[in-house]
Amino acid sequence: MQDGGVIIYPTDTIYGLGCNIYKHKAIERICLIKHIEPSKAQLSFICYDLSNLSKYTKSISTPLYRMLKSYLPGPFTFILPASKEVPKLLQNKKNTIGLRVPDNNIARAILSELQYPIISASLPGEMVEEYTNPELIYENFKNLVDIVVDGGIGGMIPSTIINCINEPYEIIRQGKGIFSE
């Protein structure tokens, strides 16, 4: 991943596509796999914990930080204001980012080893049962990614997405996580 590799890895929700957030060519490969334009992609990234939150987001309030801390790690993606440290390719027109801290030992071990966030993107198309089996995922994507990390059978329900730009916070997509402000 340090050289621009693309992986498929397990999270606490579904298997995802991942790469180094600072490798533009790798991000473009993920967009190609997903059949989306890089400029229109809404890609999130995952962090090991909230310790780097101030690096990738503009200042957030203490109550918001406490709320994030109470839900993470967990099956949530939080939409937050992006800082200038976030690569332009990952920022949308609203200058926001999607941030996750998965409750998955394999994903967190990868993050701990790399010491930087990685992309968190769902596999292309509709969620299908074969996206839960790493052996089938490997067969389907072996020519498109560099490695499929086998974390056993995965889930089919993605993360819950919460928009935290304005209060009250808004559920954008109901997924595995149950959110109550």
CATH fold label: DHBP synthase
| First and last CA, distance | 36 Å
**Classification by helices and strands:** alpha/beta
**CATH architecture annotation:** Alpha-Beta Complex
Strand residue percentage:
15-25%
Secondary-structure element string: EEHEHHEEHEHEEE
Number of domain modules: 1
What would you say about this model in short?
This protein is an alpha/beta fold. It is 24% helix and 19% strand. The chain contains 5 helices and 9 strands.
Write the layout of secondary structure elements.
Layout: E1 7-9, E2 16-18, H1 24-34, E3 44-46, H2 53-56, H3 62-71, E4 76-81, E5 96-100, H4 105-114, E6 118-122, H5 134-141, E7 147-148, E8 160-163, E9 170-173
Parallel strand pairs: 1-7, 3-5, 4-8
Antiparallel strand pairs: 1-2, 2-6, 3-6, 4-5, 8-9
Explain this structure.
This protein is of the alpha/beta class. The radius of gyration is 15 Å and the shape is globular. Helices cover 24% and strands 19% of the residues. Strand 8 (160-163) and strand 9 (170-173) form a beta hairpin. Strands 7-1-2-6-3-5-4-8-9 form a 9-stranded mixed β-sheet, with helices on both faces. It has one domain: DHBP synthase (Alpha-Beta Complex), CATH 3.90.870. The chain has helices at residues 24-34, 53-56, 62-71, 105-114, 134-141, and strands at residues 7-9, 16-18, 44-46, 76-81, 96-100, 118-122, 147-148, 160-163, 170-173. The mean pLDDT is 92.
Keywords:
single chain; 181 residues; alpha/beta; DHBP synthase; nine-stranded mixed β-sheet; 5 helices; 9 strands
